[in-house]
Design brief:
This protein is of the alpha/beta class and 342 residues long. It has 13 helices and eight strands.
Length: 342
């Protein structure tokens, strides 16, 4: 899949949701054109926090996956680039839209909308890293802590023949952002990002102030898209898309090259092929997702899966009691028993 073509449908990055197991489910059942990881702190990589690398674990697939990172310090993005490239990711994305207070008050996520020189520095570090990668520099040539280097290299060799080191010399550098901080800034931010040298912009049609409330403003997204005309930069829109036909309508109406879907894909990997699963298919998916989760995270139990199990019940008749039971699940045995009883 050439991601510079128009018509792209993507699974959006969602912290705490689009982990390796969720992506494998979505890929196997729905087959979006591309998927994003959850965001990963760039500074955490530098601090040697190995558990962060779980977010970058991945199954072997031909579906491109973009690794997303956040953080205010440009210098740490060099590690992000080399880790993602080594793991065979199809692109590196900078989070410039997260409204989380802890992230914003340190100057990352949406705060970058108010500090464009810093955003420019981040993009510059990524563009420089890409040249270094092209010239043969590898993760082992960086000063990322030894334990992180070893862990990344072991991840490359661990899963079904491993994740090939990226053979794409020109890994796309992208940004996912919002239409503005307090109010729309597309007239300023979009030309700025194009000029800074990004290959792609994913734009959520809400401001930081709006967080996730109200409706995404697709006219602002269309306005942003106008700036990319005549450039090599693609623009993907995001916000409130709830089906593939809706995504296709949005691409046609607002002219964007692609669309990202986040919340409508929770518990619904079938959305990407516009399929309504049966009750039995949902049950099978819950069990398979839980098994995958434990394969990726043998150190955990199924508590983090409870939200997913509850989402799979959306639209299932008489699901309230089933949900109550699922919210107490910790082991596969618990889950199997509950699913067998309905
Ligand atoms: C719980 C939650 C976590 C999110 N985490 C991320 C993230 O890690 N990176 C990111 O760029 N956006 C993140 N987002 C924003 C989504 O990618 C998306 O922009 C937003 O939900 C709007 O799309 P939707 O209407 O399809 O849900 C998150 C959203 C939610 C609800």
């Amino acid at each position: 899949m050439n991601l510079s073509q128009p018509g792209i449908i993507a699974l959006a990055p969602v912290d705490g949701v689009t982990d390796a197991a969720f992506r494998q489910m979505t890929d196997e059942i729905g087959k979006p054109d591309v998927m994003y990881t959850e965001f990963v702190t760039t500074e955490g990589l530098f601090r040697g926090r190995e558990t962060l690398l779980h977010a970058l674990d991945k199954h072997k697939t031909k579906t491109p996956i973009i690794a997303q990172f956040f953080g205010p310090h440009p210098k740490f993005y060099r590690y992000a680039f080399f880790v993602a490239a080594e793991l065979g990711y199809a692109g590196i994305d900078v989070n410039m839209g997260c409204p989380d207070t802890n992230i914003v008050k340190k100057g990352g996520g949406a705060a970058l909308l108010l500090d464009l020189p810093r955003a420019k520095e981040i993009i510059k570090v990524l563009l420089e890293s890409r040249i270094e990668w092209k010239n043969g520099k590898r993760l082992v040539d960086t000063d990322l802590p030894e334990n992180m280097q070893q862990k990344v290299i072991s991840m490359c060799h661990s899963r079904e023949g491993g994740n090939p080191v990226s053979n794409q010399a020109d890994l796309p550098i992208s940004v996912k952002t919002r239409i503005g901080y307090h109010s729309t800034q597309v007239n300023e931010v979009i030309p700025f990002l194009i000029d800074a040298g990004v290959d792609r912009i994913a734009l959520h049609g809400r401001t930081f102030d709006a967080r996730y409330s109200g409706r995404a403003d697709w006219t602002e997204i269309a306005k942003a898209n106008e700036f990319t005309k005549g450039t090599d930069v693609s623009l993907w829109g995001n916000g409130d898309v709830n089906s593939i036909s809706d995504a296709e309508d949005k691409m046609k109406t607002y002219g964007v090259d692609g669309v990202l879907i986040a919340r409508a894909a929770f518990g619904n990997p079938w959305i990407f092929k516009e399929y309504q699963p049966t009750f039995e298919e949902r049950k099978k998916a819950m069990l398979y997702h839980a098994q995958l989760f434990l394969q990726y995270r043998p150190d955990l139990d199924l508590r983090p899966m409870r939200k997913h199990l509850s989402w799979y019940c959306k639209g299932m008749e008489g699901s309230a009691r089933l949900r109550d039971h699922l919210m107490k699940v910790s082991t596969l045995e618990d889950l199997k028993k509950i699913l067998e009883s309905v």
